[in-house]
Predict the 3D structure of the following.
Amino acid sequence: MAHAEIHQDHSIDAADLAALAGRTLAVIGFGNQGAAQAANLRDSGHTPVVGNRDDEYATAASEEGFDLRSIAAAAEAADIALLLVPDEVQPDLVRSEVAPGLRAGDTLVVASGYNWHFGLLDVPDGVDVVMVAPRMIGAAVRDRYVDRHGFPCFVSVERDATGRAWETTLAVARAIGGTLGGAIVSSAREEAALDLFSEQAVWPAILDVVRTAHRVAIEAGFSEEAVLNELYLSAEPAEVFAHVARDGLFGQLGLHSRTSQYGQLRSLTALDEQGELASRFARVMHDDILSGEFAREWSRPEAGERLEALHREVAASPIAAAEAQVRARLGD
Ligand code: NDP
């Protein structure tokens, strides 16, 4: 069994935290993660500069009292730049506005591993590249810092040009609240691969289960209203998943009736764990994700148009049409 190292507030010594002393932190992008991490850095005693284009996000940063600059000026001022703009805009933005401001000895902090792992970020030589990636949406990064519950976070050193990149990583993670919940030592490769694996293996399988269950139940003569409520409109699956996180994958079974428990376990244990699903998941992990094939496809200019076409295709499917009708009847 492979286990990762975990760092929490109490296990970090003062020498590691000194990595931020006298260095200017810049938050590039004031969106979901940017606004939350900038506020957490400030409450941890730092004075981050914020870099954003001149629009409503910039207005919000100014109104909250941050030292707002253009992205290029914030990168220029930065000793440590936290790159918190959407993944798809990072390669061009880093090339045109962030990299020109970075000097040897500076640190670029990414919050997801995708662009770095797949070779899409051009970062000048001599600049450390590290990952501090919250496993949490931005609003909760802020709320859980304030209430001291914390959130899990993946951390890694991707390029250690200075020999001090690890200390910087840990100190940044601590300053945004990432060691309250536990900073798990990972890598850009692992973070990107697991994210893509959830998106391309796990969630499509779950969506397919719902779609297939809908078709079979409708063919058996049941009403759209009953079927869709049973499957997801009631939000019962969301409740079950919340209990999975709290009580365990099988620990939550105690919340269901004994009839339900017997039915679920009888069916689950009859499934072939090494069957078609396992082969499909392994294909997605190795052939699509780890090979870089998906990243190459998604980087092609025509990928955006294909995404629009795929949205149109699923919007025209029977379950989407039925859902719209049921929602309208229920006054949703
Ligand atoms: P957002 O979509 O919230 O980022 C919006 C910010 O990016 C705004 O400041 C926006 O400024 C700026 N921006 C958008 N497009 C451009 C552009 N073309 N040029 C310059 N600035 C631009 O991003 P997130 O906070 O969701 O994600 C940031 C990073 O955090 C990503 O790497 C993501 O993978 C990671 N992450 C996100 C999580 C989440 O839950 N959202 C969880 C963990 C990690 P403008 O006003 O100019 O539009």
Summary: The beta strands are 6-7, 25-28, 49-51, 67-69, 80-83, 107-110, 128-134, 153-159, 183-185. The chain is about 55% helix and 10% strand. The first strand starts at residue 6 and ends at 7.
